[in-house]
Amino acid sequence: MTKLKFFLILFIVITLTSCDDKQVFDDYQNVSDAWGMNEKISFTLPELDTTKTYNLFINIRNTNDYKYSNLFLISKMQFPNGKVVTDTLEYRFATPDGQWLGTGFSDLKENKLWYKEKVKFEEKGNYIITLQHAMRKNGEVDGVSSLEGITDVGFRIENTQNP
User: Fold this and answer.
1) Domain residue spans in the chain?
2) pLDDT tens track for 107-121
3) What InterPro entries does this protein's entry cite (predicted)?
């Protein structure tokens, strides 16, 4: 009976992990107790097919300790040739009545956030994505030095169909 349970659990795990046929890259980095203002989180992407297009996502996990209804990020994409493209991004995390967006059953919510759509990685080599929070309190110039409630930051690449 124990072998049957083992094989049943193994079958379920394999089935669940093999269902994600769009996934090309999916990685998370843990944030310690708080995400520091100068703490940069980087992802080195694998070499990708230069003829395909991809959808790019930023994944954020937050708890109820997160005190804001949105999140500002600074993203940098470094190309293999050294060129860097910087974007300032804003994402909503809660509805006006305070309900968290994202998925999850407990106080941990996961947000899959659009970053770029139908991207072609035309240069051969590794691209590096760097993310840094840029949160500020209303009316204040200085940034939030220690952002609590963010537990993990991830980056995901999915296949998309060429037009």
Assistant:
1) 24-159
2) 899 999 999 999 999
3) Motility-assoc_lipoprot_GldH (IPR020018)
